[in-house]
Amino acid sequence: MTEPKEKTQPDLPEEQDLSEITEQEVVRRDKMQKLAQEGVELFPHKVEKTHVVFDIVSQYADLTNEELEAKKISAVVPGRILSIRKMGRAIFLHIADSRAKLQVYLREDKLGKEKFSQFFLLDIGDIISVEGNLFKTRTGELTILCKSYTFLAKCLHPLPEKWHGLQDVELRYRKRYLDLIMNPEQRDVFRLRSTMISHIRRFFDQKGYIEVETPMMHSIPGGALAKPFKTFHNALGIDLYLRIAPELFLKRLIVGGLEKVYEINRNFRNEGISSEHNPEFTMLEFYEAYTDYFDMMELTEELIHELAMTLLQSDEIPYGEHIVSLKKPWKRIKLMDALIQYSGLSPSRFEDQEGIVEYAKTLAPKQQALSYGKALDIIFDKHVKQNLIQPTFVMNPPREISPLAKASKTNPEEAERFELVMAGMEIANAFTELTDPAEQKKRFEQQTKEREKGDEESHMVDMDYIEALEYGLPPTGGEGIGIDRLVMIFANRKSIREVILFPLLRPK
User: Fold this and answer.
1) DSSP codes, 115-167
2) What is the pLDDT of residues 15-25, one digit of tens each?
């Protein structure tokens, strides 16, 4: 049997119905065919490079042309073509990487007639590698005088118009790769996000915490009041839930003697989508033995202030029309006081519990089995939160809506819990953790009753967690911080979709 010959050129993209593509796309496909006919490798395996665009711009942009000529800096640099300006037997173009762009100067007498004419088969959006020496033009722009170039990839679709960029918000989210090509400021957002997470890890590592990983599939959803996503495990024949929070597993680790733990985790909640909510999101959760929610407040102030000074070099952050000041100490206010101060309702109205429940139903008509505590929470969300621009610890909500938190020592109807609100958004939620297994079981059973009334967000009874508590959970403070929302504030973005690379969208 004859061995098949090795292919020297990969197959071209399959022919499409020309009615489905634009005239420009037809032209780009024709150019790719011609490149192949001229022997150009369309899909090379690798490119040898000496620099990336950002390094060249960072290292040499401040040098004069005389200094560049004296150094005779030669470079091989890959990048995507963002602009092309043809001037007879010369061509100026810009190539870019993820952080910078660089001008390239092509001349027919340097490249040779064949290679120069072949360049006319390239388009804006194509990826190439250029080799040459650095110099500065008369206008002072750092430029590479190209003596050769290598084709690396064809862009078969025209990029959005140069001067307007990619403005269609939904298209930006659906085609994030195109958003990142056309809007460099978006790349900065995700670089900021990555750097923030790195610094969070460093912060907790230096304080003696250990980073852990806990399951993302739970047999009983728990750790937060939220509706879970449900799935089925074929081999085990059991229902499973994507985690809504890692809290109960992290506290099991505290029981086991790991006294300081944190996890940067993905959570999933089967709830609405809004400018502040995405069904999957990233949380930082941390737990420390022998602390309470006051310790968590101090740790949170320290963490976020340090992040701002490290990443933004300021503790005053512009957010929309506001300036968010992270100067310590941050405001602390009890939930009831915040409701009276900001809700627009008179103090006497809160004494009428049934009336408050009925009023809350008008604000959240889809909510079922509303208790007085849940009604207060709804009023807070609808009328109070947006007024809290500066970082504010909203403390001591009703115990009934805080089933994992200890009751307050001064008022047993309240919980030792806080929400951190900043720029009108909840950023963090923390407790003095409930450590009494009998009380925790009682709380779970009460949640089950609420669930039977139609509240799908209430906890189920997790007997394995109760058993873990029976081995002894020391006094513990715990907290969850929403990474996505924190990035929104640091990056001055009004939608959570701006800070998640691939937010969930309804399929077309």
Assistant:
1) HHHHGGG--TT-EEEEEEEEEE-TT--EEEEEEEEEEEE---SPPSPTTT---
2) 555 557 899 99
